Amino acid sequence: MNLLKLEIVVLIKKYKKLTIVAEKLGIKQPTITFHIKSLEEELGVSLFELRSGRYFLTEAGEALHHYACKIDALMKEARRVTQEFKDFHKGAITIGASYVPATYLLPEIIHQFQCEFPNIKITLMVKTAPEIRTMLQNHEIDLGVISAAPFDESLLKQTIVMPDTLVLVFSKEHPFSKKENVSLQDIEKERILLHRNPSTTRDLLTKWMLAHNITFQSEIELDSLETMKQILKYGNGVAFISKLAIEQEVQRNELCYIPIPEFEFQRNIYTIHHEDRWNSKIISFLLHSITSYAVKN
C-alpha cells in the first residue's frame, strides 16, 4: 500500500469516475485501474463496486477511506510545512475562520501579512466554529480563528485573542433607544431576529433564554448577519449580535445597542491549531500578527 493508492481511494469516493480521478492525478486511466486491482489483491478484499458506470466503495472500502482521508490530509500538511522550510518567503497557509473574525478581524491582518510575504498563498475558509475544529482535527487546515464560548477539546491548542461580546441591537428609531432601563420582560415582548442553527450566538442565546424562562412571541430566523442588520435598521425587532459586527453601523448612527440584561455567558475570539502540527516561522508570525492587531485595536 502506498500514498498514491490511498489518494485514489479518496478521489474515487469523491468523484466516482475513473476519468476524473485520472485527470486530477495527472495519470492515465489504465494506471488507476491497475492500482485499484493491486490494492484489492494486497488487502484481499473487494474495495469498489461498479454501478451504472460509477464506482462506489464497499463496506471495506468505506473503512479504508476513513484512514486514507487522515493519511492524505497529514501528507498535504507535511508538504505545506516542509515547503515553508524550503523558502521562508514562499508557501501556502489555509485558515479556517468563523464569520465574525473572518469579516471584522482578519481582512486587515491578511492584507498586512501579504504585504510582508507577497509570495505566500493564503486560503481563507469561512465555516462555523464546530466545523473548523473538526477540520483542524482532520488536518484539513493549518490554523483556525473562531468566535466561541470557552471550550476544551483534546488535540487542539487555543489562545484567547480578544473578547467577543454579544449585545442587544436595535435601530435608532426603536423605543429601546429612548428607554433608560430595558428589562427581560420588555425584551420578551419584542420580535427577535435569530441566527439559524448551527450558531455559537444561537447556542448562547438559547442558554440565556432557558436560564431566565424567556419565550419570544415572534421570531425570524436568518442565515445572513448582514440581512439581519438591514432588517434592524427599519426598526423591525431586536437581535443579539457581536459588538464587533456593528461598530460601523453604530458610528454611522444606524443602529444602537445595550448590554444584554443578566447575560452571564462569555464568548471570545480564539486562535486554534492542532497540537501535532509543527508551527513554522510563517505560522508563528501570523499568530503573532493576529494577537498584536487585537491588542492595538
TrEMBL record:
The keyword DNA-binding belongs to this UniProt entry's keyword annotation: yes
InterPro entries listed in its UniProt record: LysR_HTH_N, LysR_subst-bd, WH-like_DNA-bd_sf, WH_DNA-bd_sf
GO molecular function, one term: transcription cis-regulatory region binding
One matching Pfam family: HTH_1
Coiled-coil annotated residue ranges, if any: none
Domain HTH lysR-type: 1-58
UniProt entry keywords in alphabetical sequence: DNA-binding, Transcription, Transcription regulation
Family the UniProt entry places it in: Belongs to the LysR transcriptional regulatory family.
Name of this chain's protein: HTH-type transcriptional regulator CzcR
Protein species of origin: Bacillus wiedmannii
Organism lineage string: Bacteria, Bacillati, Bacillota, Bacilli, Bacillales
